[in-house]
What we know:
Blueprint: E1 3-7, E2 10-12, E3 18-25, E4 33-39, E5 46-51, E6 57-59, E7 67-72, E8 77-82, E9 91-99, E10 107-108, E11 112-116
Parallel strand pairs: 2-11
Antiparallel strand pairs: 1-3, 3-8, 4-5, 4-9, 5-6, 7-8, 9-10, 9-11
Amino acid sequence: QVQLVESGGGLVQPGGSLRLSCAASGSSFSRSTRGWYRQAPGKQRELVAAITTGGDTNYADSVKGRFTISRDNAKNTVYLQMNSLKPEDTAVYYCNAGGRLTSSGPFWGQGTQVTVSS
């Protein structure tokens, strides 16, 4: 059974940092594009960042310069380092696999809540 499990979410003050992790099990995604998406209340799910097996990346304009996506193929894990967090970054963050740099694939994690508030 393929599983993507996110961790690292939580409550942080504006300007703070968080690091999300997404570990895959049941299948190797070492040759698969991996991505992070988010969904805020009342809004559509949107791409945050994606990374190919070769390390090419794509970021939403709203997070460029603040967020960094990376991957460790040996650990079947992808990371999202989030710095200078803003209240508008508050959302449920989802890990994705099997897509492209600009579109999602069929595999999703269960999501992890990120709340940015003072």
